[in-house]
Design goal:
Largest sheet: 6 strands, antiparallel
Order of helices and strands: HEEEEHEEHH
Structural class: alpha+beta
Shape: globular
Helix content: 25-40%
Number of helices: 4
Strand order of the largest sheet: 1-2-3-4-6-5
Distance between the termini: 31 Å
Strand content: 25-35%
Length: about 130
């Protein structure tokens, strides 16, 4: 059986995946807190890189099944600042039973919700 990844390793994998999507760029609009944007719009909040105390990501999940699944992760909650009303979910990276692949699936869904159709088509063509 494969050992569980550390939260910071999981964050790195999610970040690398997000940045591999067409047109994705990383920015730091609030100091050390990283976000990944497409077409100047955020599709994933990554938080602070070295945050070992409470590492988490936030993604916009419009699909009801994915949204419910993400909220079932221990410690997950609608994202603050009113973003939860629009489908944003804060998902802690501390649950060893939440694999990075699943987090990447949610990041891709968030990307597809935010990205222009031409970039989604580029992703689908890969």
């Amino acid at each position: 059986m494969e050992p569980k990844a550390s939260p910071l390793t999981t964050r790195r994998r999610v970040r690398d995946f997000a940045l591999s999507l067409p047109g994705a760029v990383e920015e730091f609009p609030w100091g050390d807190d990283a976000v990944v944007k497409v077409n100047k719009k955020i599709f994933v909040f990554l938080g602070e890189e070295g945050n070992a105390a409470s590492p988490a990501i936030s993604a916009k999940l419009k699909d009801e099944e994915a949204h419910g699944h993400a909220l079932a992760v221990p410690g997950a909650a609608p994202t603050g600042y009113g973003l939860g009303r629009s489908g944003w979910v804060r998902i802690p990276l501390t649950d060893p039973d939440t694999p990075a692949e699943l987090l990447c699936d949610w990041v891709e869904e968030s990307y597809r919700t935010i990205a222009p159709k031409r970039l989604v088509a580029e992703l689908d063509a890969r």
